[in-house]
Amino acid sequence: MALVVQKYGGSSVADAEGVKRVAQRIVATKKAGNDVVVVVSAMGDTTDELIDLAEQVSPLPPGRELDMLLTAGERISMALLAMAIANLGHEARSFTGSQAGVITDGSHGKARIIDVTPGRIRSALDEGAIAIVAGFQGVSQNSKDITTLGRGGSDTTAVALAAALSADVCEIYTDVDGVFTADPRIVPTARQIPRISYEEMLEMAACGAKILHLRCVEYARRYAIPIHVRSSFSQREGTRVIESIEGTDMEQAIISGVAHDRSEAKITVVGVPDKVGEAATIFTVLADAEINLDMIVQNVSAASTGRTDISFTLPATDGQTAMSALNKVKERIGFESLRYDDRIGKVSLIGAGMRSHPGVTAKFFSAIAEAGVNIEMISTSEIRISVVVDGDDVDAAVASAHRAFDLDAEQVEAVVYGGTGR
């Protein structure tokens, strides 16, 4: 008997028919002799609708109350799913994040999991029931307030529960048949990847591939939890995210895929005095504002002025917070001005094989140039090359890079069953 944790995204339970279809899949897994724990997201676009409703009531809703509101979405879907399973003759018990023992810090809207104490989940399994857990939420260790984990938090909930329960596998069900070499909505000829390492999946998630949340993959790698990404709309095998085993794939592809991200903005701090400590001051201010940065570029200082420009990218949702924090220290640092651009996109080439293949960078940049796209910023790691381009040029850059590295399938493999990719 195996212990299987399954997570179903909002598109999988978007309506009553979807809930019943998911219930049948869960019961089939139970009938196969497995213990089953299910993590479920809010139905369809419920979370977005609740956010819109909150903003109509208050332009700046308190974080505590917004979390209380948003967690209602998952509570609805978990209860309906438990009812649907009961209708198929099996016992299911639904649990909120706090009831499931998901303990977090007190940061509303983007809480981090501190511990998982799944005593009630284990008891339900021991009594033969299927446990249904509301994803995306937990309870603060100190204040005991309800918290949410941020976008994609249900993925993280599922992997955290899998780790705490020593599950055999964590299955992430979405509306596409696994991880592809590019977003099928942009590149219809993208190929499905049967197996991918945690390392490559981390880079893809960090670079905008929405199939798995970054924190989910980090958690899985830390606790060696195998992830199986599949579609809840089909019976196809999907993609397995596993520990990289050197030397097993003699013909491993150089490039795993091309990812893109339109959710970032760029800030340029113009005319920073080229003195020791100025950059440290800028990034300390941003760190104090709890803003995560991505790509950072500093120009060579002009000899005539002794000043330089520093550019960096960050989540667009944090853009105004960052601008406000920097403006408060403008006189102390002595920079001239700030420039803000939220019409950018990041395009990334990812592949563990590139570390031993020269010429990858040249081919990537040539493909971007052939698409007529100008590069604004460049960032690299051992298995990734990322560029920032104009937001309107993202699709062309992705398609050109995908084609240049022979990633196109001979026929269309990707089917987007739902509407969101989550």
UniProtKB/TrEMBL annotation:
It comes from the Bacteria. Substrate binds at residues 47, 74. GO terms for biological process: diaminopimelate biosynthetic process; homoserine biosynthetic process; lysine biosynthetic process via diaminopimelate; threonine biosynthetic process. Keywords: Amino-acid biosynthesis, ATP-binding, Diaminopimelate biosynthesis, Kinase, Lysine biosynthesis, Nucleotide-binding, Transferase. It catalyses: L-aspartate + ATP = 4-phospho-L-aspartate + ADP. GO terms for cellular component: cytosol. InterPro entries: AceGlu_kinase-like_sf, ACT-like_dom_sf, ACT_Aspartokinase, ACT_dom, AKii-LysC-BS, Asp/Glu/Uridylate_kinase, Asp_kin_monofn, Asp_kinase. ATP binds at residues 7-10, 174-175, 185. Its EC number is 2.7.2.4. The keyword GTP-binding does not apply. The keyword ATP-binding applies. Pathway: Amino-acid biosynthesis; L-lysine biosynthesis via DAP pathway; (S)-tetrahydrodipicolinate from L-aspartate: step 1/4; Amino-acid biosynthesis; L-methionine biosynthesis via de novo pathway; L-homoserine from L-aspartate: step 1/3; Amino-acid biosynthesis; L-threonine biosynthesis; L-threonine from L-aspartate: step 1/5. GO terms for molecular function: aspartate kinase activity; ATP binding. Belongs to the aspartokinase family. Catalyzes the phosphorylation of the beta-carboxyl group of aspartic acid with ATP to yield 4-phospho-L-aspartate, which is involved in the branched biosynthetic pathway leading to the biosynthesis of amino acids lysine, threonine, isoleucine and methionine. This is Aspartokinase. It comes from Actinomadura craniellae.
